[in-house]
Amino acid sequence: MDARIAVLASGAGSNLQALLDDPVVGPCVVLVVSDNPAAFALERARGRGVRAVVLEPAHYADRREHDVALEHLLEEEGVEYVLLAGYMRVLGPSVVRAFDGRVLNVHPALLPAFPGAHAVRDALEWGVAVTGVTVHLVDEEVDHGPIVLQEAVAVREDDDESSLHARVQEAEHRLYPHAARLLIEGRVRVEGRRARVLSGEPVSAAAATPGRGSAP
Ligand code: GRF
After folding, report:
1. Would strands 103-107 and 130-137 be described as parallel, antiparallel, or unpaired?
2. Ramachandran assignment for 171, one of left (phi > 0), alpha (psi -120 to 50 degrees), beta (any other)
3. What is the pLDDT of residues 87-114, one digit of tens each?
């Protein structure tokens, strides 16, 4: 039986689109959840006939109640894997524990550099020559869990936030479906704070060579 995947997204949903377009991952996406009723990601899901649900934080008494609603929804759909794709809320600890080792996030920088919501801007302001994309397992700390794949993106002299983000997103759209496939194929093994891809290729090799992390 195919894996059952939920994607959580708050915005444009270009990463959701890349996941939906992947021939292995796409058919497994059974649910898209957003905290933002205006998220274009919802349209993308509906366009593919995927159930799209809004859980607006303002409709819940507190963070815990919102987490409980999300957990119920994931349970109702028999979800096995959760992919965060530009989801602007921190996943509650009970959800992280319930899906331990089965939640991925895509982050627009080479973690542990530049965590947080403005990673592309922060990298540019810091003056780094290389930034990139990280796909990592989610733990209870923000932008922190074991790294599954990374891909480097060179910063150009004339880059602004938008040109750099566009190239970072191109890398995201390659890397995230690849990492999702590895996860649902059971090829990601966590050893302490490291994630290993079961082909035997060390995670750090993907980080060291631009493009290598996205090889099929
Ligand atoms: C991506 O750059 C992702 O790395 C970050 O949020 C952005 C979401 O973009 N976490 P989109 O909604 O997938 O287009």
Report:
1. antiparallel
2. alpha
3. 999 999 999 999 999 999 999 999 999 9
| Residue having the nearest C-alpha atom to atom 14 of ligand 1 | 14
Residues 123 and 80 in one domain: no
For the entire predicted model, the pTM comes to 0.92
Are 106 and 37 in contact, with CB atoms under 8 Å apart? no
Q: Are residues 75 and 117 in the same domain?
A: no
Residue 72 DSSP one-character state: H
To test the pocket of ligand 1, the residue of 114, 164, 169, 173 to mutate (highest count of ligand atoms within 8 Å of its CB) is 169
Tell me the two tokens of residue 139: 């733990």
Does the beta carbon of 17 lie inside 6 Å of ligand 1?
A: no
The reply to whether ligand 1 has any atom less than 6 angstroms from the CB of 119 is: no
Residue in 15, 88, 153 to alter for ligand 1 test, most ligand atoms within 8 A of Cβ: 15
69, 100, 131 - which closes a domain: 100
**Catalytically active residues, by annotation:** 107
